[in-house]
Amino acid sequence: MRADEFLSLVRKRRSVRAYRPDPVEKKKILRCLEAARLAPSACNAQPWTFIVVDESHMKNALADLTNDSWLPLNRFARQAPVHVVVVVEKPNWTSSLGAVVKKRDFPWIDLGIAAEHFCLQATAEGLGTCMLGWFNEKGARTLLGIPQKSRVGLIITLGYAADPADQPKQRKTMEKIVRWNSYAGESFVKSEAVTGDGGRS
Ligand SMILES: Cc1cc2nc3c(=O)[nH]c(=O)nc-3n(C[C@H](O)[C@H](O)[C@H](O)COP(=O)(O)O)c2cc1C
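Above: query sequence and flavin mononucleotide SMILES. Below: predicted holo structure tokens.
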């Protein structure tokens, strides 16, 4: 793979909030899961379980847990034919110890990396995803039989985008987010030098 091909894939991934009802091929789901399985994690703890929910009754019940009556944020979730629930497991003892000593929540960092691996592979498969962090955790736990010792980290909606066209990204510029050598250091880099369009892509 050429370096610019990976960057193109990253640019192509976006949060898809309108889906076609078409089912998703199992082999594609499995490749997305394999990409997630290969993600790095602190002390290689791999503190995750992925629950694929494609039975429509269960999936719709789960989708309903991503909305609150006072804030129906994720109404689109019902459209997606598949949801993948990423469960955060208790990590191995080295990661747990490191987390205490260094005051860092490594499993949640690990979860984010694995989720993005999943979503990038989905993009490569021509599929759309949206990570959902807004949901009723207790409800999801009960619905899927997730034990108390584990946390429901994210729900990823998966399916074919209703509108597969690429969309421009709303992102801070390179100048705003990059510093060289110290927090107060120069930014130097201009987004345009990397993207050719001032960082809008
Ligand atoms: C941890 C996390 C939680 C998110 N939760 C939601 C959510 O509940 N509902 C939603 O529509 N989008 C959610 N998103 C998607 C973000 O809104 C989206 O990634 C961001 O606006 C950038 O847009 P893009 O993904 O299209 O590039 C979440 C993203 C992340 C990483």
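The pocket of flavin mononucleotide is lined by residues 14-15, 17, 73-74, 130-134, 169 (CB under 6 Å).
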